[in-house]
Amino acid sequence: MLKDLWIETVERLNQTMPSSGKMWLKNAHFKDEKDNNVILSFSSPFYLDSFKKKCQEQAENVLSDFAGTDIKLTLEVDNNIKEEEIVEKKITKLSEKKKAVNETLNSDYTFDNFIVGENNLFACNVAKVISNNPGTSFNPCLIYGGVGLGKTHLIQAIGNYIYDHNPKMKVIYVTAETFTNELIQAISNKTANAKFKTKYRTADVLLIDDIHFIADKISTQEEIFHTFNELTERNKQIVFTCDRPLTELTGINERLITRFRKGANVDLQPPQYETRMAIALKKCKDLNFKISQEVLEYICLNIKTNIRDLEGALTTLYSFSELVGKEITKEIAMEHIKNFIPTQMIKSTEVTIDQIISQTASYFNVSTFDIRGKSRNKNVSLARHISMYLSSTMTNLSLTEIGKYFDSKDHTTVSYAINKIKSIEESDESIKRATETIISNLKK
Ligand code: ADP
Ligand code: MG
């Protein structure tokens, strides 16, 4: 613990001390730590004394500031240390530090295991261009999309790729939440504050995840604004993610939004069925999980808008099959992954088609007579399509049976209506709101 802080302290002192002081600092060698003591060893009493006179007090102050408590230095002479060793150790320490910066990168999130479909093709291509030439195009870049759609995976893939190919680059990944917390901790302490600013403003690639978190946080926005300016002036790459498009982002200062708007804005959409299937197959392969086609189809048909849930469902079933040593049937799957499936997708025998038609009618302010009838009024036919759709997802009735509840509607018409709503439900907010409200009214 204290060892890391000592490395930070040396770095800081190297930035602030006159070169006469740095000379003595160079000869201090971290030996051990005990309680609130750092033990430093020196190759000769001369070096020890010089350090004591020129550096000790300042070093203890910086170290204590970093630790947030009083830390003392204990100095010792160790005849076994040779000058070269000290230099060597220092280099290793610095390279250790470089790695530490990237401990925030998860090496599982790479381009290699990011499945590409129509929904994320553009975002993925932009991310690859950035990774190959950071700071030159698409700078800054915003990746936005709903929960569990791969924002963190993609932004981290950029970080991993750049870090692997240019180990000298300072790549920093941070969530907006961590950034905010670090800022809060640094704000009241001059040294820590300077350290915080330097950390982010000296990045070659800065990746900030979930920027929506800074809404209404004025100081964080201010700090990000200045960091942005400094980095972009020096052509350093910035990528950030957000759970919604900028137009829907509120509580953020307009001048910051203007900065975000420059560069590229790319979105991640919910994956199509085929992409969900490809992701599920890959996950099963990684887990070495043998699962029937029928169960896979069931999962991919029902979990549509969140890849994290898709993975969660598979992991749940995998754990279950490992635990009981049983093959997963569709019935078992249905029972065990209920939590991952939106409630409207779970069939229930408690809701009747009459109730669905009546709730839909009242939501759209039309009569049930009209819904069942032949009116081509836009509002009425939308209500009709939605009630057909909900009847197919919420009851166990077949398409032909549903058709019978509507005037001369055979199963082809019902199937058309269902597919139409299905295809626009995910992208059309008003339809989504309508179905969700009707469902929640039905559940009451
Ligand atoms: P977000 O940050 O948008 O909420 P994540 O990046 O955390 O979503 O993704 C959720 C999970 O889904 C992660 O485990 C991620 O690896 C996986 N995932 C998302 N998109 C893909 C993809 N296209 N291919 C493979 N796995 C994906
Ligand atoms: Mg995320």
Q: What features would you highlight for this structure?
A:
single chain; 444 residues; alpha/beta; Rossmann fold; Helicase, Ruva Protein, domain 3; 4 domains; five-stranded parallel sheet; 8 strands; 58% helix; elongated; binds magnesium ion
Characterization of the model:
58% of the residues lie in helices and 10% in strands. It is α/β, with parallel strands linked by helices and 444 residues long. It has four domains: 95 residues, DnaA, N-terminal domain (GMP Synthetase, Chain A, domain 3), CATH 3.30.300; 148 residues, Rossmann fold (3-Layer(aba) Sandwich); 68 residues, Helicase, Ruva Protein, domain 3 (Orthogonal Bundle); 91 residues, Chromosomal Replication Initiator Protein Dnaa, Chain: A (Orthogonal Bundle), CATH 1.10.1750.10. The chain contains 21 helices and eight strands. The longest helix has 19 residues. The site of adenosine-5'-diphosphate has 16 residues, from helix 7 and helix 14.
Protein topology:
Layout: H1 2-16, H2 19-25, E1 29-34, E2 37-42, H3 45-54, H4 56-67, E3 72-77, H5 83-101, H6 121-132, E4 141-145, H7 151-165, E5 171-175, H8 176-187, H9 190-201, E6 205-209, H10 218-233, E7 237-242, H11 254-261, E8 264-268, H12 273-287, H13 293-302, H14 307-324, H15 330-336, H16 353-364, H17 368-372, H18 378-394, H19 399-404, H20 411-425, H21 429-443
Parallel strand pairs: 2-3, 4-7, 4-8, 5-6, 6-7
Antiparallel strand pairs: 1-2
Helix pairs in contact: 1-4, 2-3, 6-7, 8-9, 12-13, 12-14, 16-18, 16-21, 18-20
The structure holds adenosine-5'-diphosphate and magnesium ion.
